Amino acid sequence: MPALVIGTGYGGSVAALRLAEAGVDVHMVEMGMAWDTPGSDGKIFANTTSPDVRSYWLRTRTKQPLSNFLGFPLDKDVPRHTGILDAEEFGGIIVYQGRGVGGGSLVNGGMAVTPRRENFAAVLPSVDAAEMYGTYYPRANAGLGVSTIDPAWFETAECYRYARVGRKHAQRSGFPFVFVPDVYDWDYMKREAAGTATKSALAGEILYGNNHGKKSLQQTYLARAKATGRVTISPLHKVTSVAPATGGGYTVTVEQINTSGDTTATKAMTADKVFFAAGSVGTSKLLVRLKATGALPRLNGEVGKGWGDNGNVMCGRANHMWDATGKLQSSIPTAGIDNWAAGGAFAEVAPLPTGIETYASFYLSITRNPHRAQFSWNAATGRVELNWQTAWKQPSIDAAKTIFDKINAKEGTIYRTDLFGTYKIWGDHLTYHPLGGAVLDKATDNYGRLYGHPGLYVIDGALIPGNTSVNPFVTITALAERNIEKIITTDL
Ligand SMILES: Cc1cc2nc3c(=O)[nH]c(=O)nc-3n(C[C@H](O)[C@H](O)[C@H](O)COP(=O)(O)OP(=O)(O)OC[C@H]3O[C@@H](n4cnc5c(N)ncnc54)[C@H](O)[C@@H]3O)c2cc1C
After folding, report:
1. Are 195 and 203 in contact (CB under 8 A)?
2. Which residues, other chains included, contact 138 with Cβ-Cβ below 8 Å and sequence gap of 6+?
3. Ligand 1 pocket, 95 CB below 6 A?
4. Residue with CA closest to ligand 1 atom 5
5. CB 32 within 8 A of CB 99
6. Distance in Å, CA 248 to ligand 1 centroid
7. pLDDT tens digits, residue range 63-84?
8. Cα(32) to centroid of ligand 1, in Å?
9. What domains, with CATH codes, occur in the chain?
10. HSE-CB of 446 using CA atoms within 13 angstroms
11. Contact in structure between 478 and 135 (CB atoms under 8 Å)
């Protein structure tokens, strides 16, 4: 076959669509499920407040990002299943990732943020920013279906009381407050609020999938890719090896798995070009192992390096009784506090959709964190390890404190200590935004061509060196649009 794409997230979906439009047949291999069939409750996706068999990737106990509430642990036993959210545990960090056709777009908040141009230039200096902001960011935003909440509706919607309280506190402390675009269908959300459409964001759906309203890749890039008739997808198929084939191209070894995660068949596929789009962690793990075990010996020494957590750190604040944040909270965040220039933190005002009044404000901050980790092969355990240290979150906590210490002082409020354990303020054990591991212009050339093995490409979040200053998927999509255009015109 001409082109094989490993993974069906943002990078993979862009590659598949543009290759197919150029007349190239594409096969996509995805380890997760298709997520196109309702369960026994008639719904495809489980609700955030009641995780079930569909919710976690091959775990026997849930691993909820907010592990505790009012002192009570929230996790519970679930049957082992190829569920939608992977809480992948490395030594110093848990990396949350979407599993299934659509990758992270199945589980994420849909916050679709284009970074400030000066910040982008600092992240990827080898990329022509004028081209990105003139052509590829607009193309990505259009392809993803990005739009911003109607500001008039925001002012009155009960489900955004929490965001208005977040704004009031930010502004009283002098911080810039910005609306954040999203891929959620805002007209649909208005109908949810009016009671004329089945509730999804207003029913708390997000972390384990949205049954309505959110435009995941299934509704955008992948739908268009399939409509070309040139793209096929194999769900529940996991790539385990890529090696040069005798006679040219690459042999890709693929394990078919069942919904318990057991291998039921092993297949060999051959492709002229192979696109690594397994996500920052998936792509890095494959490349590091294939280099170390001799399948792709000519990959360079940059493979596995430059990994970061996008500076993710979470916290909650306890408000006074007169600052109720609302029983009904839309699960789709719509606003943020931008203190990047002064304090190195961009904090999204996040929902806490528990169904009860919590008087809590909750935030996911993206911060400027200088630490970068490396993936390496451990031959003894047969695993790829990541050397991130939990203590490396301290610069992120310090950056977040530039916002929340000031707000707490101004409002006379305190941090919540019951959301991530007992008497624990900071959610510093996780990231939603893994980035890097096969960095552009280091492990690859300036368009994602892997050095050492012509015909192999990286086209996902692994290209980005650890931080984007905002939520990453628009940048991943725009960079993929840029790179695939070049690859199609010069390599095919
Ligand atoms: C809970 C959560 C909330 C988030 N919220 C936001 C947000 O609001 N805004 C934002 O910009 N970003 C958000 N993100 C991050 C965003 O989803 C990711 O940055 C993005 O999905 C990464 O895109 P990607 O193309 O690099 O890879 P992914 O989207 O991760 O896709 C990789 C795919 O490859 C598959 N795969 C991996 N290994 C293999 C293999 N060996 N064989 C076959 N298939 C494989 C995976 O199952 C997956 O489907 C969030 C993430 C999470 C987890």
Report:
1. no
2. none
3. no
4. 108
5. yes
6. 31
7. 999 888 877 888 999 999 999 9
8. 11
9. 3-225+306-491 (3.50.50.60)
10. 6
11. no
Q: Which atom of ligand 1 is nearest to the CA of 104?
A: 21
The encoded tokens of residue 103 equal 């990758």
The angle at the Cα of 462, spanning 459 to 468, to the nearest 5 degrees, equals 105
Closest atom of ligand 1 relative to the 10 alpha carbon: 25
Set 30, 192, 348, 485: catalytic member:
348
Does the annotation mark 453 as catalytic? no
pLDDT tens digit sequence for 348-385:
999 998 888 999 999 999 999 999 999 999 999 999 99
Closest atom of ligand 1 relative to the 471 alpha carbon:
11
Closest by CA position to 81, among listed 120, 51, 115, 118: 51
Q: Which single residue is written with the structure tokens 């750190």?
A: 313
Residue nearest to atom 17 of ligand 1 (CA): 104
Q: Which residue among 473, 474, 477, 481 is best mutated to probe the pocket of ligand 1, counting the most ligand atoms within 8 A of its Cβ? A: 473
Which atom of ligand 1 lies closest to the CA of 460? 26
Question: How many angstroms is it from 99 CA to the middle of ligand 1?
Answer: 8
The full DSSP string for 75-136 is --B----B-SEEEEE-SS-EEEEE-STTGGGGTS--B--PPPHHHHHHH-TTS-HHHIIIII
Q: 472: Cβ below 6 Å to ligand 1?
A: yes
Q: Which residues, at least 6 apart from 423, have a Cβ–Cβ distance to it below 8 Å?
A: 417
Q: Return d(Cα 108, Cα 102) in angstroms, integer.
A: 11
Can you tell me the distance from the alpha carbon of 204 to that of 353, in angstroms, rounded to the nearest whole number? 6
284 Cβ closer than 6 Å to some ligand 1 atom: no
Q: Which residues of 86-110 are buried (b: 16+ CB within 10 A; e: fewer)?
A: bbbebebbebbbbbbbbbbbbbbbb
> Cα dist. 137→19, 476, 487 in Å?
19, 10, 18
Q: Which of 27, 169, 212, 433 is catalytic?
A: 433
Predicted confidence at residue 282, as pLDDT, reads 99
**CB 99, CB 82: distance < 8 Å:** yes
- Annotated catalytic residue 348: yes
Coil/strand/helix, residue 260: coil
182 Cα nearest atom in ligand 1: 8
Mutate to test the pocket of ligand 1, among 5, 30, 362 (most ligand atoms within 8 A of CB): 30
Coil, strand or helix: which one is 393?
A: helix
Mean pLDDT, contiguous 10-residue spans, the chain (492 residues): 98 99 98 97 95 97 88 90 98 97 98 96 96 98 98 98 97 97 98 98 97 98 98 98 96 98 98 99 98 98 98 97 94 96 96 89 97 98 97 98 98 94 93 98 98 98 98 98 98 95
